[in-house]
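In the design runs reported in the main text, the only information available to the sequence generator was the tokenized backbone. The following block is the verbatim input for one such run; it is reproduced so that readers can re-run the procedure and compare outputs position by position.
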């Protein structure tokens, strides 16, 4: 009888292993500062650091040629006049001029559905 109880206890011990600490689980400890070869500066040896500024990131500044061309565009209160000056400025890049022309299309060529049919 005693042997049966021992076997039963051993089986329940093997079965009830859901909780508790597992090797390798949990948050990893922080990397400790190490000294560099160049001197006493201490840096962390974490290879996959995230966050912060990265070299080459961010919006690139406009080059001087494009900046001068955009300044040459006539300032206007009317969006139609502004888009016309952008479209007619030969110093700007073609993509900007095409976008301005597409934005001006409804001003000069209304959609066909907007026209009223003639009853005559």
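Verbatim output:
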């Amino acid at each position: 009888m005693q042997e049966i109880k021992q076997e039963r206890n051993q089986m329940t011990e093997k079965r009830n292993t859901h909780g508790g600490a597992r090797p390798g689980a949990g948050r990893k400890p922080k990397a400790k500062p190490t000294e560099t070869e160049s001197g006493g500066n201490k840096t962390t040896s974490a290879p996959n650091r995230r966050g912060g500024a990265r070299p080459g990131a961010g919006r690139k500044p406009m080059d001087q040629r494009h900046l001068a061309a955009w300044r040459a565009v006539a300032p206007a209160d009317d969006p139609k006049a502004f888009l016309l000056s952008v479209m007619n400025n030969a110093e700007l890049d073609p993509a900007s001029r095409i976008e301005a022309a597409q934005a001006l299309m409804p001003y000069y060529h209304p959609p066909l559905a907007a026209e009223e049919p003639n009853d005559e």
